[in-house]
Amino acid sequence: MTTRLIDLKHLQKKFGKQTVLADVSLHVDAGQILGLIGPSGAGKSTAIKTALGMEVADGGEALVLATHMPNRALLGRIGYMAQDDSLYDALTGEENLRFFGRMKGVKKDTLAANIAHVADVVDLTPDLKKRVSGYSGGMRRRLSLAIALLGDPELLVLDEPTVGIDPALRRKIWHELHQLRDAGRGVLITTHVMDEAELTDEVALLLDGKVMAYDAPAKLEAQYQVKTIEEVFLKAEGVG
Ligand SMILES: Nc1ncnc2c1ncn2[C@@H]1O[C@H](COP(=O)(O)OP(=O)(O)OP(=O)(O)O)[C@@H](O)[C@H]1O
């Protein structure tokens, strides 16, 4: 039986008179990477925040780990990386990881090894002893991603995790995401990098508050009779 980690059913969200999510249904199962793509302002972050209970839905239903969020008890089972990094600037990278690790309930005797692993995934090991105030934008993103990976959560929700990250490291991060997927974790990831969308198991294209295309990358390319997800995106937007 598949375990449904995220289940959004006809989700609606308005900000004042602006309807950002008109009707969004999508799901992430254990052992699956779902890529959420769409033009800037399409509502990708809003869909994530509403799913996680950081915004209140105006209609439909959002279930995460079969529960209506927010639910404090579940936070340790979810690795969330927001678009804006919330880090403690006065602390070192390692101190941030230790703090968030404890918050997530990572056991004391495994925390050091866990920190070493997640720091390695994002190539931050040499910078762990530096204060975050001296980090570059890309380093901050990498630390945020490392924090999301702490505690080996069942579900990763990553909002543009690879912005400002160079191609070699991006490849390493995707390798880790695929390993986590193969180990049964679920991943919801938003991206502007269309090459990355090809690396997902399914892609949902958000346009005008609705899911306009939703399938495995190869199936979408066949359906739109194109060779890349970028072309699917452009065709669906009416540009291609
Ligand atoms: N808290 C808020 N209050 C009012 N409007 C908001 C709020 N959050 C988002 N919006 C609006 O909702 C729309 C969708 O924003 P959102 O950040 O979800 O888009 P996005 O697809 O994630 O964009 P990007 O790819 O640029 O990150 C935008 O028009 C934005 O201005």
Automatic annotation (TrEMBL):
Please name the SMART domains in this protein's record: AAA
Q: What is the lineage of its organism?
A: Bacteria, Bacillati, Bacillota, Bacilli, Lactobacillales
Q: Which GO terms describe its molecular function?
A: ATP binding
This chain belongs to which protein, by name?
Answer: ABC transporter ATP-binding protein
Gene3D superfamilies attached to this UniProt entry:
P-loop containing nucleotide triphosphate hydrolases
Keywords for this protein: ATP-binding, Nucleotide-binding
Q: Does the keyword Membrane apply?
A: no
**Whose protein is this, by species?**
Lacticaseibacillus hegangensis
InterPro entries attached to this UniProt entry: AAA+_ATPase (IPR003593), ABC_transporter-like_ATP-bd (IPR003439), ABC_transporter-like_CS (IPR017871), P-loop_NTPase (IPR027417)
Q: Which residues form the ABC transporter domain?
A: 6-233
PANTHER family of this UniProt entry? ABC TRANSPORTER G FAMILY MEMBER 20 ISOFORM X1, ATP-BINDING CASSETTE, SUB-FAMILY H, MEMBER 1
